[in-house]
Amino acid sequence: MTRDVAVLGAGMHPWGKWGRSFVEYGTVAARAALADAGLDWRDIGSIVGADTVRAGYPGHVAGATFAKALGWQGARVASVYAACASGAQAIATARAQILAGLADVVLVVGADAAPKGFFRPVGGERPDDPDWLRFRVLGATNPTYFGLYARRRMAVHGDTPEDFALVKVKNAAMGALNPNARYRGRVTAEEVAASAVVADPLRLLDICATSDGGAALVLSSTDFARRRGVTRPVRIRAVSTVTPRFPNTVLDLPDIATDSSVAVQPADETFRASIARAAYEEAGIGPQELSLAEVYDLSTALELQWYEDLGLCGEGEGAKLLREGATGPGGRIPVNASGGLASFGEAVPAQAIAQVCELTWQLRGTAGERQVAGARVGISANQGLFGHGSSVVAVR
Amino acid sequence: MSRTRTPAVDGWFTGGGDGFRLLGTRCSSCATVFFPREDVHCRNPCCVGGSLMETPLSRKGRIWSYTDSRYRPPSPYVSNPELPWEPYALIAVELAAERIVVLGQTTPKITVADLAVGMEVEVVPGVLHEDAETTWTTWHWRPTGVRA
């Protein structure tokens, strides 16, 4: 029995700073995905929304808000929140419904309207919330965690700020070819080096912006796709939504300390590596079979970390892989052919869905100027605040 | 008028001067240490569960990594918007005995140029901010050998 689900449609609202409601972005993306699938909204049996938290209730409770905006038609609804991994959890929910036979065709939507500047926790006096505490007691913004990881790589692996800048140069060049990206200009290493330091050693152009945007997918059973005459759809073969294992020894957002490993020996692999491994195991493929990867480059340095966590190279070899051009256009394993977060900025609940939109277009061979030649297998990877893994394997 | 000294977070540190220590808890069954403190259940999934006893953490550790905050963090971090922003450094410190990494601000005037991964640091009492009535206290990391 196949465990695959078909991707019938993919759609986006372009990323930017549009200053409008996330509902509008999500609805535009949903309509685009439905049009791409050649389906009417009234054909959809279930809708899953990925929530934003910046709009009273979790995104007005996202799935229902999008269903209402598209016109109530009685579809089953679910809404999920897993911070940056919300989109992957929405995809996982849709997939589970399809594989369980609860729905033939499911619409997945995520959209956000992000504030300017640093993300911050919701207000009030909430000392029981680790996310509130790290801001209150340490002023530890997200970029300071990215700075810690980058400095650690420099000390342990010998990465340099010039290596980090090359990630931005690569992703900006790819994003320049993507009409849905927010930043469409090429960037030079000199421009990265001349941008202001935000969290040493990272500069403004090393760190992803916060954006408005929306992304949607229409997923179905492979039987439904076949009945629709779609004989060779892009298929989602694995969705990893794992949590860390105790003791988690990498300082993750929003934590002030790691787990102690005084009583239990930590696993050989980090949480991030376990996210990818779970996806590979479920898909029955390995990193050597990948045509491309979309990873969560919240910072340039973090993209290099993902190379290693995905097994694209050995530990500490990420910068070397980049410098060899393996992850650039025409390379052995292009990473962030979409332009990545460097070109999009982060629209939190839309982002993991957007990664799968890019995999879909690449695997169909319809990615235009940024097409990865002969793409057959793609992986996305991301990690959400509070211990949410997210990785999707798509094949064609 | 003298201000009251109040911890920015209850129960996370104690003492003054050389006696200042971070406070965690230790499971009586598996000996895992928790910081920030766990007071109800041990989070080791292999542990049958013991009682959690308050325990002071090691005073000294080594820098796992460090960074700084060049821009003013948003609320609930408290800073005076009328004063120019003074960046501060943040250090993640590995405590060998507890096998844990704990984040903290450095003492004022320490910058990233003064730091290196692997350098020894010690925990010292610090001030997070002051308002009309209260001095909100916290912990700071300081390279050993540096005074004041």
Q: What is the secondary structure topology, with strand pairs?
A:
The complex is a heterodimer of chains A (396) and B (148).
Chain A (H helix, E strand, L loop, with lengths): L4 E12 L5 H16 L8 E5 L5 H4 L2 H9 L5 E5 L5 H14 L5 E8 L17 H9 L3 H16 L3 H15 L13 H6 L2 E3 L2 E2 L8 E10 H6 L6 E7 L30 H13 L8 E4 L4 H10 L8 H6 L16 H5 L3 H17 L12 E8 L3 E8 L1
Parallel strand pairs in A: 2-3, 2-4, 9-10
Antiparallel strand pairs in A: 1-7, 1-8, 4-7, 5-6, 8-11, 10-11
Helix pairs in contact in A: 1-3, 4-14, 7-11
Chain B lengths: L3 E4 L5 E2 L6 E7 L5 E2 L17 E5 L3 E10 L18 E8 L4 E7 L13 E11 L3 E10 L5
Parallel strand pairs in B: 1-10, 8-10
Antiparallel strand pairs in B: 2-3, 3-4, 3-5, 6-7, 6-9, 7-8, 9-10
Pfam family, one (chain A): Thiolase_C_1
InterPro entries (chain A): Thiolase, Thiolase-like, Thiolase_C_2, Thiolase_N
GO molecular function, one term (chain A): acyltransferase activity, transferring groups other than amino-acyl groups
What attributes does this structure have?
heterodimer, A: 396 residues, alpha/beta, Peroxisomal Thiolase, Chain A, domain 1, nine-stranded mixed sheet, B: 148 residues, mainly beta, Thiolase_N (chain A), Thiolase_C_2 (chain A), acyltransferase activity, transferring groups other than amino-acyl groups (chain A), Thiolase-like (chain A), Lipid-transfer protein (chain A)
